[in-house]
Amino acid sequence: MSARIGKPLLRLGAGALSLGFLALPAHATMGYFTLGGDAVARAQGGAGVAAPGANAMASAINPAAVAGLGREFSLGLEAFAPSRGYDGNGTLFVAPGSVRSGYNVFAIPNFAYNLPLANGAVLNIAAYANGGANTLYPDVANPNCGGATGVFCNGKAGGDLSQLFLSFTYAKKDGNISWGISPTIVGQRFKAYGVGSFAALSSNSGALSGNGYDYSLGFGLRAGLQIDVTPQLSFGLSGQTKMKMSKFKKYAGLFAGGGSFDVPAAATIGMAYKARPDLTLLADFERIFYSGVPALANPYPNGANQLGSANGPGFGWTDVNVLKLGAIWKQNAKMTWRFGYAHATNPVKSPYVTINILAPAVVQNHFTVGGSYKMTQRDTMDFSVMYVPKNSVTGPEVTSAGATTGKITDEMSQFAVSVGWTRTF
Q1: Is the pLDDT of residue 351 over 50?
Q2: 271 CB-near residues (< 8 Å, 6+ apart)
Q3: Is the distance from CB of 263 to CB of 33 less than 8 angstroms?
Q4: What is the 8-class DSSP label of residue 304?
Q5: pLDDT of 421 above 70
Q6: Of 42, 168, 186, 235, which sees the most CB atoms within 10 A?
Q7: Which strand (E) or helix (H) includes residue 41?
Q8: Burial code of 168-186, b = ≥16 C-beta within 10 A, e = fewer?
Q9: What are 186-218's pLDDT values in tens digits?
Q10: Cα–Cα dist 148/421, whole Å
Q11: Cα 399 from Cα 144, distance rounded (Å)
Q12: How many domains would you assign to the chain?
């Protein structure tokens, strides 16, 4: 990369990473991963790993997708509204009754810039939310606390995780094959509060709860491939390595491995079929490997291991499989409509509903619609709406002493509206 090109891209990247952390975090879907990086991807159910990119943000689905794009700039914003909480029946520790999290509307930005090179390749920079998790439970009355209050007998309770990806993509189209590679910088921030009552179970009770935000940085690699088998049919593949992150030292007594919280690996395969000149059908399958991150995958409790220890308890999450279906209908030269559906398996299993009150990521079915309107020869507006109906998981209340006779039901639903703007040059 020449200095003339590299310095502006690095400045854009640093600015995007800084602005991203000013955005409010959210509780995402597919575990805690987002359904798509921008309005275009969300409108078609997150599918599109085999389709040429509609704009510079397509590198978030597949780094190869931007290989055929020219110089352009994309900017977008999602208003994300999750509703989450739990119901406790006959609990002996957790606050009984129906308790709902506050803090229900979030703003999530995205940004991308695509720059063609003299050799026919492109450089692309994109900043977007990979995912997040957020709950904020009020200081509710709890008759199980012997005079204390709160979901976990420690006042207001909740957690707040956000992850931002900053990807630098080099992509090229050679004949009927497009490929791309994206070294990716990852930033995380996290805080937890109201879980101080778990101190006796922690290897480091001073780094367990109520320590404000902590930040983590890491790095990994994303890559992708697209193959045009015929003018109508193409296949795609994309994936990311596990992103190795620095530890959350302020929460070394909460997450297994002394605050270790890596970003799991993921892989997607898919196809795009042009059924008619104005209609393209998409089908993707994604697998997210939460089992590779002990802080997420380890069971709770995990034998005699303490919170924060080398093999400490986690959230009991399993790997997630996601089927994504999409359709793109070009109504005319100005208007393109997009439709989508995604079904994700549930990472939260019945035995672990107690700890997952902090992260009730139990939604499964996603219905999306949106489109792109070409306002001028250079400017396009994208939009999408996503509806995720309520889903729930019920299981036993589990304390350090084991399961009680109480029952807990974690539940969540979601609604989101996204807009975006792309300027070509």
Answers
A1: yes
A2: 50, 233, 234, 235, 236, 282, 283
A3: no
A4: T
A5: yes
A6: 42
A7: helix 39-43
A8: bbbbbbeeeebbbbbebbb
A9: 999 999 999 999 999 999 999 999 999 999 999
A10: 50
A11: 13
A12: 1
Exposed (0-12), middle (13-18) or buried (19+): which is 21, by Cβ within 10 Å?
A: middle
Q: What is the DSSP code (8-state) at residue 48?
A: -
Q: Pairing between strand 320-330 and 157-174? A: unpaired
Ordered alpha helix ranges (H), 254-311:
256-259, 294-297
Supply the mean pLDDT for the chain. 93
Q: Which range is least confidently modeled, 133-142, 187-196, 202-211, 398-407?
A: 398-407
Extract the runs of DSSP E, i.e. beta strands, from 252-401. Answer: 266-276, 279-288, 320-330, 335-344, 365-374, 379-399
How deeply is 119 buried, as exposed, middle or buried, from its count of CB atoms within 10 A (0-12, 13-18, 19+)? exposed
Whether the CB-CB separation of 351 and 402 falls below 8 Å is answered with no
Partners of residue 419 on adjacent β-strands: 77, 383
Of the candidates 269, 175, 278, the residue with the CA atom closest to the CA atom of residue 232: 278
Closest CA to 126 of 224, 234, 31: 224
Q: Two tokens at 325?
A: 């279906």
Give the structural domain span for 312: 3-424
How large is the average pLDDT for residues 330-359? 97
Closest Cα partner for 115 from 62, 150, 69? 69
Token digits of residue 382:
């994208």
CA distance 83 to 413: 5
Pull the structure tokens for residue 340: 């989508």
Which tens digit of pLDDT belongs to each residue from 367-376? 999 999 999 9
For 257, phi and psi rounded to 5 degrees? 80, 30
DSSP string, 358-390: G------EEEEEEEEEE-SSSEEEEEEEEEEEE
Give the C-alpha separation, 227 to 148, whole Å: 61
What secondary structure does DSSP assign to 120-149, as a single string?
A: S-EEEEEEEEEEEEEEEE---B-GGGTT-B
C-alpha distances in Å from residue 82, one per residue of 61, 77, 263, 382, 411: 23, 16, 22, 22, 11
* CB 229 within 8 Å of CB 273: no
Burial class, 4, CB count within 10 angstroms (exposed 0-12 / middle 13-18 / buried 19+): exposed
CATH number at residue 77: 2.40.160.60
